[in-house]
Amino acid sequence: MADHDFAPSFTQKPQLRQEDDGNRLVFECQLIAKPKPAIEWYRSEELLSQNSRTKFKIQNFGENKYFVVLELDDVIDTDAGLYKVKAKNRMGEVSASINLNFSPVDEPVEKQIDGLAPTFIKKPSIQQENDGKRLIFECQIQADPKPQIRWSHNSKVIDNTPRHKFKVQNDGKLYCATLEVDNVSFEDSGKYKVTAKNELGESSATISLNFDISPSNIPSSL
To answer: Which residue intervals define the domain Ig-like in the entry (predicted)?
Structure first.
Protein backbone atom coordinates (compact mmCIF):
# COMPACT_ATOMS: atom_id res chain seq x y z
CA MET A 1 0.00 0.00 0.00
CA ALA A 2 1.05 3.62 -0.41
CA ASP A 3 3.06 5.24 2.38
CA HIS A 4 0.85 8.32 2.62
CA ASP A 5 -2.32 8.49 4.72
CA PHE A 6 -5.66 8.12 2.96
CA ALA A 7 -9.38 8.17 3.67
CA PRO A 8 -11.32 4.91 4.20
CA SER A 9 -12.60 3.10 1.11
CA PHE A 10 -14.68 -0.08 0.93
CA THR A 11 -13.15 -3.10 -0.79
CA GLN A 12 -16.23 -5.16 0.11
CA LYS A 13 -19.60 -3.57 0.83
CA PRO A 14 -21.70 -4.78 3.80
CA GLN A 15 -23.01 -8.32 3.45
CA LEU A 16 -25.37 -10.26 5.66
CA ARG A 17 -25.26 -13.88 6.80
CA GLN A 18 -27.11 -15.98 9.36
CA GLU A 19 -25.82 -18.16 12.17
CA ASP A 20 -27.47 -20.28 14.87
CA ASP A 21 -30.55 -21.11 12.75
CA GLY A 22 -31.24 -17.44 12.09
CA ASN A 23 -31.03 -16.36 15.73
CA ARG A 24 -27.81 -14.47 15.01
CA LEU A 25 -27.20 -12.06 12.13
CA VAL A 26 -23.71 -11.02 11.08
CA PHE A 27 -23.11 -7.89 9.01
CA GLU A 28 -19.58 -7.76 7.62
CA CYS A 29 -17.55 -5.59 5.26
CA GLN A 30 -13.94 -4.91 4.36
CA LEU A 31 -12.15 -1.61 3.86
CA ILE A 32 -8.76 0.01 3.52
CA ALA A 33 -7.66 3.12 5.41
CA LYS A 34 -4.66 4.84 6.94
CA PRO A 35 -4.65 5.62 9.80
CA LYS A 36 -7.03 3.07 11.34
CA PRO A 37 -10.60 4.35 11.06
CA ALA A 38 -13.22 4.79 13.76
CA ILE A 39 -16.31 2.69 12.99
CA GLU A 40 -19.94 3.53 13.70
CA TRP A 41 -23.03 1.44 12.97
CA TYR A 42 -26.54 2.87 12.54
CA ARG A 43 -30.02 1.38 12.19
CA SER A 44 -32.55 3.72 10.59
CA GLU A 45 -30.21 6.67 11.34
CA GLU A 46 -29.96 5.73 15.05
CA LEU A 47 -26.42 5.18 16.34
CA LEU A 48 -26.03 1.66 17.73
CA SER A 49 -24.21 0.89 20.98
CA GLN A 50 -22.69 -2.37 22.12
CA ASN A 51 -24.78 -4.41 24.55
CA SER A 52 -25.61 -8.04 25.34
CA ARG A 53 -27.26 -8.45 21.89
CA THR A 54 -25.10 -6.15 19.79
CA LYS A 55 -21.35 -6.63 19.30
CA PHE A 56 -18.84 -4.73 17.13
CA LYS A 57 -15.55 -6.10 15.81
CA ILE A 58 -12.75 -4.61 13.72
CA GLN A 59 -9.81 -6.80 12.75
CA ASN A 60 -6.66 -5.89 10.87
CA PHE A 61 -5.87 -8.57 8.26
CA GLY A 62 -3.11 -6.90 6.25
CA GLU A 63 -1.40 -3.58 5.72
CA ASN A 64 -4.09 -0.90 6.15
CA LYS A 65 -6.81 -3.55 5.57
CA TYR A 66 -9.68 -4.01 8.01
CA PHE A 67 -12.47 -6.54 8.47
CA VAL A 68 -15.48 -4.86 10.13
CA VAL A 69 -18.30 -6.85 11.75
CA LEU A 70 -21.61 -6.20 13.50
CA GLU A 71 -23.13 -9.22 15.29
CA LEU A 72 -26.78 -9.19 16.32
CA ASP A 73 -27.97 -11.94 18.69
CA ASP A 74 -31.51 -13.10 19.57
CA VAL A 75 -32.92 -11.49 16.43
CA ILE A 76 -36.44 -10.01 16.65
CA ASP A 77 -38.78 -8.34 14.15
CA THR A 78 -37.88 -4.84 15.30
CA ASP A 79 -34.29 -5.43 14.18
CA ALA A 80 -35.47 -4.88 10.61
CA GLY A 81 -34.44 -1.62 8.96
CA LEU A 82 -31.70 0.15 7.04
CA TYR A 83 -28.26 -0.50 8.52
CA LYS A 84 -25.39 1.86 7.79
CA VAL A 85 -21.71 1.51 8.61
CA LYS A 86 -19.53 4.62 8.70
CA ALA A 87 -15.72 4.60 8.69
CA LYS A 88 -13.85 7.81 9.45
CA ASN A 89 -10.27 8.95 9.95
CA ARG A 90 -8.57 12.33 9.72
CA MET A 91 -8.34 12.04 5.92
CA GLY A 92 -12.07 11.61 5.33
CA GLU A 93 -15.01 9.29 5.78
CA VAL A 94 -17.14 6.83 3.85
CA SER A 95 -20.36 4.99 4.55
CA ALA A 96 -22.44 2.20 3.03
CA SER A 97 -25.88 0.77 3.73
CA ILE A 98 -27.71 -2.54 3.62
CA ASN A 99 -31.42 -3.13 4.19
CA LEU A 100 -32.69 -5.91 6.47
CA ASN A 101 -36.23 -7.17 5.88
CA PHE A 102 -38.00 -10.25 7.16
CA SER A 103 -39.95 -12.51 4.82
CA PRO A 104 -43.28 -14.10 5.85
CA VAL A 105 -41.38 -17.15 7.11
CA ASP A 106 -39.24 -14.90 9.31
CA GLU A 107 -36.08 -15.42 7.31
CA PRO A 108 -34.01 -12.28 6.94
CA VAL A 109 -33.64 -10.97 3.42
CA GLU A 110 -30.95 -8.50 2.43
CA LYS A 111 -31.38 -5.87 -0.24
CA GLN A 112 -28.03 -4.65 -1.48
CA ILE A 113 -28.21 -1.57 -3.68
CA ASP A 114 -26.04 -1.98 -6.76
CA GLY A 115 -23.57 0.76 -7.61
CA LEU A 116 -20.63 2.59 -6.07
CA ALA A 117 -20.41 4.76 -2.99
CA PRO A 118 -18.47 7.96 -3.77
CA THR A 119 -14.70 7.56 -3.68
CA PHE A 120 -12.15 10.29 -4.37
CA ILE A 121 -9.94 9.37 -7.33
CA LYS A 122 -8.20 12.74 -7.12
CA LYS A 123 -8.25 14.79 -3.92
CA PRO A 124 -8.97 18.55 -4.13
CA SER A 125 -6.30 20.74 -5.69
CA ILE A 126 -6.15 24.52 -6.24
CA GLN A 127 -5.42 26.44 -9.44
CA GLN A 128 -5.09 30.19 -9.99
CA GLU A 129 -6.47 32.28 -12.82
CA ASN A 130 -6.70 35.99 -13.63
CA ASP A 131 -3.51 36.90 -11.71
CA GLY A 132 -4.72 35.17 -8.58
CA LYS A 133 -8.10 36.92 -8.48
CA ARG A 134 -9.86 33.64 -9.27
CA LEU A 135 -9.23 30.30 -7.57
CA ILE A 136 -10.46 26.95 -8.86
CA PHE A 137 -10.78 23.97 -6.51
CA GLU A 138 -10.99 20.70 -8.43
CA CYS A 139 -11.41 17.04 -7.51
CA GLN A 140 -12.42 13.77 -9.18
CA ILE A 141 -14.91 11.30 -7.74
CA GLN A 142 -16.05 7.85 -8.79
CA ALA A 143 -19.68 7.06 -7.96
CA ASP A 144 -22.85 5.36 -9.20
CA PRO A 145 -25.52 6.70 -9.05
CA LYS A 146 -24.58 10.36 -9.51
CA PRO A 147 -23.51 11.93 -6.21
CA GLN A 148 -24.67 15.17 -4.68
CA ILE A 149 -21.71 17.50 -4.20
CA ARG A 150 -21.47 19.97 -1.33
CA TRP A 151 -18.64 22.43 -0.65
CA SER A 152 -18.01 24.15 2.68
CA HIS A 153 -15.58 26.80 3.93
CA ASN A 154 -14.54 26.70 7.59
CA SER A 155 -17.51 24.36 8.30
CA LYS A 156 -20.02 26.73 6.63
CA VAL A 157 -21.82 25.42 3.54
CA ILE A 158 -21.02 27.47 0.42
CA ASP A 159 -24.00 28.61 -1.65
CA ASN A 160 -24.01 29.38 -5.37
CA THR A 161 -23.38 33.14 -5.55
CA PRO A 162 -21.89 35.57 -8.10
CA ARG A 163 -18.50 34.89 -6.40
CA HIS A 164 -18.91 31.12 -5.99
CA LYS A 165 -19.75 28.83 -8.90
CA PHE A 166 -20.10 25.03 -8.86
CA LYS A 167 -19.61 22.69 -11.80
CA VAL A 168 -19.91 18.91 -12.10
CA GLN A 169 -18.94 17.11 -15.30
CA ASN A 170 -18.98 13.37 -15.76
CA ASP A 171 -17.58 10.68 -18.00
CA GLY A 172 -19.54 7.57 -17.11
CA LYS A 173 -19.08 6.95 -13.37
CA LEU A 174 -16.22 9.45 -13.07
CA TYR A 175 -17.18 12.96 -11.96
CA CYS A 176 -15.07 16.12 -12.01
CA ALA A 177 -16.31 18.63 -9.43
CA THR A 178 -15.05 22.22 -9.35
CA LEU A 179 -15.60 25.27 -7.16
CA GLU A 180 -14.67 28.66 -8.63
CA VAL A 181 -14.07 31.60 -6.29
CA ASP A 182 -13.87 35.07 -7.89
CA ASN A 183 -12.53 38.34 -6.46
CA VAL A 184 -10.38 36.45 -3.96
CA SER A 185 -9.67 38.14 -0.61
CA PHE A 186 -7.92 37.20 2.63
CA GLU A 187 -11.30 36.17 4.05
CA ASP A 188 -11.30 33.27 1.59
CA SER A 189 -8.41 31.59 3.41
CA GLY A 190 -9.14 28.61 5.62
CA LYS A 191 -10.25 25.01 5.37
CA TYR A 192 -12.37 23.86 2.42
CA LYS A 193 -14.26 20.58 2.47
CA VAL A 194 -16.02 18.79 -0.39
CA THR A 195 -18.56 16.05 0.35
CA ALA A 196 -19.98 13.62 -2.21
CA LYS A 197 -23.06 11.59 -1.29
CA ASN A 198 -25.36 9.10 -3.01
CA GLU A 199 -27.67 6.26 -1.93
CA LEU A 200 -24.72 3.97 -1.20
CA GLY A 201 -22.75 6.27 1.05
CA GLU A 202 -20.70 9.41 1.25
CA SER A 203 -17.09 10.54 1.30
CA SER A 204 -15.35 13.82 1.98
CA ALA A 205 -11.95 15.43 1.52
CA THR A 206 -10.40 18.70 2.66
CA ILE A 207 -7.83 21.22 1.48
CA SER A 208 -6.49 24.35 3.20
CA LEU A 209 -5.99 27.72 1.52
CA ASN A 210 -3.34 29.98 3.05
CA PHE A 211 -2.02 33.36 1.90
CA ASP A 212 1.54 34.41 2.66
CA ILE A 213 1.45 38.13 1.83
CA SER A 214 -1.26 38.80 -0.72
CA PRO A 215 -4.01 36.80 -2.46
CA SER A 216 -1.91 36.73 -5.62
CA ASN A 217 0.53 34.34 -3.94
CA ILE A 218 0.18 30.67 -4.71
CA PRO A 219 -2.06 29.08 -2.05
CA SER A 220 -0.72 26.08 -0.19
CA SER A 221 -2.81 22.96 0.15
CA LEU A 222 -2.90 19.95 2.45
So the answer is: 8-101, 118-208
Domains in the chain, please, with CATH?
Answer: 6-100 (2.60.40.10), 116-209 (2.60.40.10)
Beta carbons within 10 angstroms of residue 48's beta carbon? 16
Q: Rounded to whole angstroms, how far apart are CA atoms 174 and 41?
A: 28
CA distance readout (Å), 95 to 13, 26, 112: 9, 18, 14
Is 209 within 8 Å of 221 (Cβ atoms)?
Answer: yes
**pTM for this entry:** 0.53
- Going from the C-alpha of 177 to that of each of 38, 52, 89, 95, 165, the distances in angstroms are 27, 45, 22, 20, 11
pLDDT in tens, 144-176: 889 999 999 999 999 988 999 999 999 888 999
